[in-house]
Each structure stands twice: as C-alpha cells, then as structure tokens.
Design a protein that fits this description.
8 helices, Glutathione S-transferase Yfyf (Class Pi), Chain A, domain 2, homodimer, alpha+beta, 4-stranded mixed beta sheet
Amino acid sequence: MRTLFHMWLDPFSRKARVVLGEKGLEFTLRLEATWERREAFLALNPACTVPVLVEEDGTALSGSSVICEYLDEAHPDPPLIGEGVLDRAEVRRLVLWFDRKFQAEVTKNLVGEKMIKRLRGGGEPDSAAVRAGHANLHVHLSYIAYLLEHRDWLAGDRPTLADMAAAAHLSSVDYLGDVPWSDHPAAKDWYARMKSRPSFRPILNDLIPGAPPPKHYADPDF
Amino acid sequence: MRTLFHMWLDPFSRKARVVLGEKGLEFTLRLEATWERREAFLALNPACTVPVLVEEDGTALSGSSVICEYLDEAHPDPPLIGEGVLDRAEVRRLVLWFDRKFQAEVTKNLVGEKMIKRLRGGGEPDSAAVRAGHANLHVHLSYIAYLLEHRDWLAGDRPTLADMAAAAHLSSVDYLGDVPWSDHPAAKDWYARMKSRPSFRPILNDLIPGAPPPKHYADPDF
C-alpha cells in the first residue's frame, strides 16, 4: 500500500493528502515526528522533512512540490496544475505564494509558534511573531478575495493545486481558531467550497491529543 | 525583447539565466533592488522577489521554480527536468535540496551575511551564521561527491536543472572565495564542467562594483 508520512497541521503534508484524494489514490497515513530524526526515515528522505510519499514498490518521493508534480504527471486525471503553459505557471505561482510567502508570514508565526513548538517541546510562543501572523493573515485573506473577484477558484475556473495549497495552510491556522472568517466573506465562501470536497474531509478529522479544534473547524457550514 | 529582472549573486536569478541560456533564448538582464519595493516592479510581482521574467508580450512570470518549469514546457528542447516521471521527481528533489536546504544552510549564511546585507545597507555579518555556513558547505560538497559516484551529473547521465540549481548557489558562494574546492575534488571537477558551459559563462562575468571576485572565479581551469 502507498504510504504518506505526515505531521499534524503541516500544510505541506495536507496539500499532498488532498492531491492524493483528488486523484482517487488510496494510501496509508503515518505520523512522523521529523525532529526525532529517525534513522529509517532519514534513509527515505535525507532532508528529513514531511511529506514523504512511498509507493508500493518502495520508491520514495519527498518534498510536497515534488510529490504533487509527480502525482499530476503519473495520474493526470483530473489535471490539478492546469492545461496551458501559462495557466500552469499561474497555478505554480500561487502555490509558491502560499507555500513560501503565506508560510513565512502566517503559518510559521501562528501554527509554528502556537502548536509546533509545543509538539516539539520547544517553549512558549513568541508573542511578536503571533501578532505579526494575525496582521499578515488579513492581507492574505484580502488577496484571496481579490483573486476571486474575477475567478471561481484561485487560479481560474477550476479547482487546482493553488486552491489546495491555500486551503491546506488556512486549515492549519483554522485548527487554532485563528482565521477571522467573518471579516472576509469571499474567502470564507471559497473555503467552504474547499471544505465540502471529499478530498478535503479527512484532513478536517485530524485530532491532536489534548488540543481539539474549535467547533466550526470541520463544519462546511461555518 | 524578453527581460529578466535579477540581483547580483542571487542564486535563483542565476539558475533562471542558465536555463534561458541552455534553451538558446535571448533576453535582456535588468538589475532590481527588491528591497526598494519599486512600484512598477511590484505590479509585475506582488511578492517582490527576483527573478521575474517578462515575455515580449508583457506576460510576467515570477519565482525561479515557476520560470524554470515554464521555460521547460514552452521550450522543451533540450529537456532540463528529465524524461520519465521518476527521473523528473529526482531532478525536482535535488533542485529543492539546493534551493531550500543549501540556501538556508549555506547561501543565506555566507552570501546573505557577507554580501546581501552590505548591498541592502543592513549592517555587519553575523559571525556565528558565517561559521555555520562554512561548516554546512563541507557537508553539501560531500553530498555532491556522493551523487557523482554513480552518475555523470547530479541527477543522472545528462545535465539537468539540478546541476543548474546547485551550480548557481555554488557560484554565488564562490564569488566570495568561500568554497574549499581543494578539499572536494569530485565536486570541483563537476563544477569545472558546469563553468565551461556557454550558458554559464555570462554569470561568471557579473561584477559587483567595489567587490571583485577572486582570480579563480571565472576560470574553468581553477
């Protein structure tokens, strides 16, 4: 059976899970605490990051962008990176936007400080980082609304990897109850559509022991 | 004319330049000090990073991975990301290795501290970061040698985007004279082959005013 190594609230693992779901591919999920630097895991991925996808024949793929490009090439239906060359560039631009910029400005400041530090046993959240994360989140939610003014989905008229990347990050932040949805109705409407996709449901069922999500978290009508 | 916005010693800009060269595509190079947040540049790339590629018709592409995937799709000859699905995953894994891991562990600590800070007017290098950069560099040069034990080029029997990413980062560090080539003969031999490629020559001719490179820098027989 195909296996995906992941970590709770890791947006990159979540993105890979949603892509596997969209492609209709079955897989087993395995939790990996990368900070323990387990030797058998290092043999799969010397960079020691999640997600890592291990195919049935033992082939290991690491890095969410590598995994997602690979899955879209190996299982082209449905295409998640778009069709035309420029459409594909726009999808990849937005994926990068969320995986680099949103990650550095929001996810790291909120999920990293408030949850990952705790999981790793790394001390108290840095309150300046948390404040920055909250402020930056408004800018990104407005950017999502801006994109949706002329598009049904972030990169065009169909859901793509761009929506999956964005929703993966937002879902991690939303687990903490930190997304000000009521201030951003257009982003909320789009996220409700993402939440109701069958590929997205399993993510919303993750439960971190001792740290349950807010009530609205898994509800598509929130 | 196609235009590439870049910054001196930025490995991501260098990678895009080499890819344009390998594809035989002409372009004009424009220096962009992203930290000045020039309004016309922000309109091209709201993330305000280099490289940005502007095509003749005004289409702007930003992010080196977006640009390189786009160029390889729009101009498939020669293919730089490999042919088979798994070959392509291996190329992308290594590109990510250098663009994320080498960048964080080496380039940022050496080029970032010693040169970019100076260009931005941001103060003295952090000596702990510089020491870490030097130590990490040995590990990465050994990893390159390890890859080359069974391969002519980093990802297989042909030069790919993986070689271009790795050589782009190393060339930036080498501009500072900080690469201990004599300790790493296999990596040195591979880099000499990269240096002698016509696509790579223009990079080695960059000159930062007031900060010339060491003598061996542009010489393929170093």
